[in-house]
Amino acid sequence: MGKYSVTGFIQDQWTSVPPVTTADLTGKTVMVIGANTGLGFEAAKHFARMKPKRLILACRSKEKGEAAIARLRKEAEYESAELWMIDLSKFSSVIEFADKFDKDGGRLDYLIENAACIQKSYDTTPDGWETTLQVNCLSLSLLALRLLPSMIQTGKNYATHPRLVVVTSEVHLWSNIDKNVFEGNDIYKTLNSEEFCTPAVMGTRYTDSKFLNIMFYQGLNERLPHSPVIVNGVNPGYCYSELRRGFTGVRAVFDWAMEKTLARTSEEGARQLVYAAVGGAEEDEDTMRGAYVSSGHVAEASDFAIGPDGKIVQDILWTEMMDILAKVDPCVREVERKYLTTPVE
Questions:
Q1: What distance separates the 2 farthest-apart alpha carbons in the chain?
Q2: Kindly report the CA angle at 114 between 108 and 116, in degrees rounded to 5?
Q3: Which of 59, 126, 206, 284 is the most exposed place for a label (fewest CB within 10 A)?
Q4: What is the rounded distance in angstroms from the CA atom of residue 292 to the CA atom of residue 289?
């Protein structure tokens, strides 16, 4: 889908990462999904040093989440971190999380959707979806839609521009979903099918999920033309991460060698997340709307993702996704009716 060469990838990885962007977060609320380790924790630590009124760490593991809060107290001297539990492999957990925030009634200035997984083989969640597809794509989309009203209200109440940041990856440039899938009916249903999910397909499922993330945030941005909320996506680059902790055998050895020669630190990758959330204000802030952030600046997603054929696929995926999510949470249709518009051709 793109023209991203291995040489280009290596050059990007060896390019120095700009210093972390800082901002005054006094009185503001930051939420980081998947904040107990890796990129999520390092981003949370950067935010903590900017002293927001609230910093919500959304985690699946209570033990790891509490350890992260303890580390923030020690390493960032921050005492206002909150642990909220969420399991993206269960729609019910996402809905419960969103309902809790609705009742909490607070402002939400920055939402960093960072959590992801890599599955080596076909496996389904309790909801019947292939795990990577639900965790990396559908659940994060559901969470964004459910929290969107709070972010819009925050922007209106405080005359600010809250930001919703979707963490994607440069590997979306290597996504190569069969065009027959995009030309058929029920794209998500096909991608979820056990028959379709051969070992070869599962070998690129993470890559494909990052492409679907691009399709989501671009689609959401186009449906928020006059909203105070800024939606964008960010590529942190290839970093040391627990994301690949399940690798074994030759794949694990290859990844170890790649990390030693190419990987950024989790802290360096987290700087990209922070830039997508609070950077670019010195320019026209609208340049961050729908932007693909990489290496500390606005870059371009794949040719397909930003081209006319990609726009057609994006709209089909959006319609299918909304139908899927509305069945598990009727609030999705209410959000659509109240806050989203039809994209202008």
A1: 54
A2: 140
A3: 284
A4: 9
Tell me if 217 is assigned to some domain: yes
336 belongs to a structural domain:
no
For residue 173, what is the DSSP state?
G
Give dist(CA 133, CA 321) in Å, integer.
11
Strand spans (E) along 194-318? 230-235, 292-294, 297-299
pLDDT in tens, 152-194: 999 999 999 999 999 999 889 889 899 999 998 899 999 999 9
Range of the domain at 253: 6-14+25-329
Burial class of residue 188 in the structure, from the number of CB atoms within 10 Å of its CB (0-12 exposed, 13-18 middle, 19+ buried): buried
| DSSP notation for 90-120 | -HHHHHHHHHHHHHH-----EEEE------S
Closest CA to 206 of 221, 193, 191: 191
CATH number at residue 241: 3.40.50.720
